[in-house]
Amino acid sequence: MVRLVAELVAPIQRTIYGETWDVLANPEPINVAYSTAELDFHMDLSYYESPPGIQFLHCVRFDDCVTGGESVFVDAWHVAEMLRATYPDYFSTLTRVPATFQKIHFDREYPVYMRYIKQCNILTFIRGATHDTDVQRSSCAQKLTVSQLN
After folding, report:
1. Which class for 85: exposed (0-12), middle (13-18), buried (19 or more C-beta within 10 A)?
2. What is the C-alpha separation between 5 and 13, in angstroms, rounded?
3. What whole-number distance in Å separates Cα of residue 41 and Cα of residue 7?
């Protein structure tokens, strides 16, 4: 069902996990997403040149004994503005120095080596853009939270 809804919005993008996949807790996970660990703010598939702009997630089964699982979001624009205002030197560094995103995992059915170096687009936009049409995808403000700036 989620695939049918997603296809009404945009074409499905194939990833190293396939076009669709189930996320299940595993005692020996290949990725933290397949564990019971809480996930901090992050951006999925940031090692792609063009990560998915939208993802559809749905819960197939949620037992009463399960805790957690909530989705939380961060306003990366606000965090970047706070960083620029509070720590301009750090902000300047983040807008100039490219970041490396990678997925290296050979011990799987289809081995993966992906490495991509890119600028932190959201920060570049805030530093120098003058029109809303200059907005680009956020890819680097994924681990920075407002509480870390206070």
Report:
1. exposed
2. 14
3. 26
Quickly tell me which residue has 């720590």 as its tokens: 87
Distance CA 15, CA 12 (A): 9
* DSSP helix/strand/coil, 128: helix
| Three-state secondary-structure class, residue 60 | coil
**pLDDT tens per residue across all 150 residues of the chain:** 888 999 999 999 889 888 888 888 889 887 888 888 888 888 888 888 888 878 888 877 778 887 777 788 888 888 888 988 999 998 888 888 888 888 998 988 889 999 988 876 555 444 444 333 333 334 444 444 334 444
**Any idea where the domains of the chain sit in the sequence?**
76-149
DSSP-derived secondary structure letter, 150: -
